[in-house]
Design goal:
Length: 146
């Protein structure tokens, strides 16, 4: 990992985008939740975060179905990421974008938050960021093994 920048991960949903960032020691930490309903505004915020954290790469959760196939969810994420790529190009930002299989990350995140005894409303606030942490942690651990 580049010491000057932090990897970011995105859990792209229809209403919210969970964002996580790498921390020293190779840990993924929750960063923020971005409102996804205005795709242009969301793309601008995400590129702001990439620049602010000097990200060498962004890892995007790739919502494959349980058989590992791409479907409507992947199309939705691809469409959103086209907004992000356009915003990156508009600002001259060149950052690698990696796709990462996100199957069961939301389930794992929800389980973890339930075990932490968070109320339903608090889980709703945190779930997307925690799912992004699971995506990023998997990616970081995979990179360590290379």
């Amino acid at each position: 990992m580049t010491m000057e920048g932090r990897f970011l991960a995105l859990d792209v949903g229809t209403r919210r985008i969970g964002v996580a960032a790498s921390a020293p020691g190779g840990m993924a930490m929750p960063l923020e939740t971005v409102d996804a309903r205005d795709r242009g505004k969301a793309a601008r915020r995400l590129v702001d975060l990439m620049m602010e954290h000097k990200s060498p790469a962004v890892v995007v959760g790739w919502p494959l179905d349980m058989q590992g196939r791409e479907g409507r969810a992947v199309e939705r994420v691809e469409k959103f990421m086209s907004f992000v790529r356009k915003e990156m190009a508009r600002r001259g930002v060149e950052i690698e974008i990696h796709q990462w299989d996100e199957r069961l990350t939301t389930t794992a995140a929800d389980r973890m938050l339930i075990e932490a005894d968070l109320s339903r409303s608090r889980r709703k606030e945190a779930i997307d960021q925690v799912a992004a942490c699971h995506i990023l942690q998997g990616f970081l651990e995979f990179r360590e093994r290379l």
